[in-house]
Amino acid sequence: MGLDILGDRQSGQDVRTQNVVACLAVSNIVKTSLGPVGLDKMLVDDIGDVTITNDGATILKMLEVEHPAAKVLVELAELQDREVGDGTTSVVIVAAELLKRANDLVRNKIHPTSIISGYRLAMREACKYVDDKLAVKVEKLGKDSLVNCAKTSMSSKLIADDSDFFANLVVDAVQAVKMTNARGEVKFPIKGINILKAHGKSAKDSYLLNGYALNTGRSAQGMPTRVAPAKIACLDFNLQRTKMQMGVQVLVTDPRELEKIRQREADVTKERIEKLLKAGANVILTTKGIDDMALKYFVEAKAIAVRRVRKEDLRHVAKATGATAVSTFADMEGEETFDPSFLGSADEVVEERIADDDVIMIKGTKNSSAVSLILRGANDYMLDEMERSLHDALCIVKRTLESNVVVAGGGAVEAALSVYLEYLATTLGSREQLAIAEFAEALLIIPKVLSVNAAKDATELVAKLRAYHHTAQTVADKHHLSSMGLDLSKGTIRNNLEAGVIEPAMSKVKIIQFATEAAITILRIDDMIKLVKEESGNEE
């Protein structure tokens, strides 16, 4: 006698296997894009837009995964993208591998709860080990280390060939937006770096502009191309002839009155503009429109007005120049006023031509310095992919600067942890032993996938790598071997700290934490009830 639920219920092992299979399917998609020799994916969405990318989060976002368990992995990649900015592919691969191993353990009659507590323990130990033993403070390494972090992050992307060039661009950009907040912490707001894409020339012709670039031109030809010093007003409403609100009816008995109403409508806007100019504004940015009649006042006052500025651009400009974004002129008394304190200031605002577009540059902003990266490239796909890669690299450099701790890349950390955890597992007498051993095995998936993607012999390389790390952890004076990792272009093992393949330690720690959490979440499921959608209509 089944339950009276409209739907099918699956429980126990079936569900677990299904979930694991779904997650493995997702991870297999991104598997080949991991590492410096990873390949790119071409995704075509339902309206035929093509995206070519190597970024794990982007790939998964575009896949529109249906399966509930696999969705967890997609969210996982997005979380990693938000928190760290890079390492999205690794997270998904590690999580799926942990699941696969856990599923085998469950088949061998080990309760999921034991596995979960084992995984938790392994995760804590792994993170502790990274922080204590593997991490290297950045102060010892200087600017080169930042460039190397950026290069490591870009190595798997389309711009790997020019990574020297781009890495320097990225490091300069991040250091340009350095600011100290009220509590005295040094922050690097990545949002202050504006990335503009312009067709033409080659990737090598990308450059860094000091100042914030808006991808729109002046709204009228008669306006000056340069204003210095600039007082900037950021508005969020229409500077058009004010029309009556919807549903307002005016009964006019005398046709001459009609003309007066029209006149008044025009004057409201004129008064608004006069208030702006009186306050001293000579650059006006608005997210909405400005009509021709209103433009003429700005031209006469020799001010630059820009219409249809993107909302987020306006926010950034307001933040950088110390302006307040104003959404209405109304004040407490019901009058309309514009206080000069709402204005932001900058040294100059210029219109420049980049490629075929006019761009408004805001230079020498008052508060934080804003910089713009102008990317050049052959076509849209290339530019989009460059932007994604640079975003990853920017985040990585920011994390490195904020945490000041790096680890060796190229599978070094994973191999070290694997050896360490395996040893740890043998010292435990409890049930968790097996789970920790499997956790250790699972971490090896990263060096394995790296070497498979490089068309190298994975088994041999990983074995060598583990031998090195075993020596590093057991022989007292061989500790320097703990940063041995794969060299994928030659197919050998090398010391990656010296070779300059490094990543922020925070990125590795987060990868381990997030992957474990996701694996645990999916592992805990042992019952799935799918409700049947109720048929609408009159069945009775």
Automatic annotation (TrEMBL):
Subcellular localization, as worded in the UniProt entry: Cytoplasm
Gene Ontology CC annotations of this record: cytoplasm
Top-rank taxon, per record: Eukaryota
InterPro entries: Chap_CCT_alpha (IPR012715), Chaperone_TCP-1 (IPR017998), Chaperonin_TCP-1_CS (IPR002194), Cpn60/GroEL/TCP-1 (IPR002423), GroEL-like_apical_dom_sf (IPR027409), GROEL-like_equatorial_sf (IPR027413), TCP-1-like_intermed_sf (IPR027410), TCP-1_chaperonin (IPR053374)
Coiled coil (UniProt feature): none
Signal peptide residue numbers: none
One Gene Ontology MF term: ATP hydrolysis activity
PROSITE patterns: TCP1_1 (PS00750), TCP1_2 (PS00751), TCP1_3 (PS00995)
Family membership noted in the UniProt record: Belongs to the TCP-1 chaperonin family.
Role, per record: Molecular chaperone; assists the folding of proteins upon ATP hydrolysis. Known to play a role, in vitro, in the folding of actin and tubulin.
Annotated protein name in UniProt: T-complex protein 1 subunit alpha
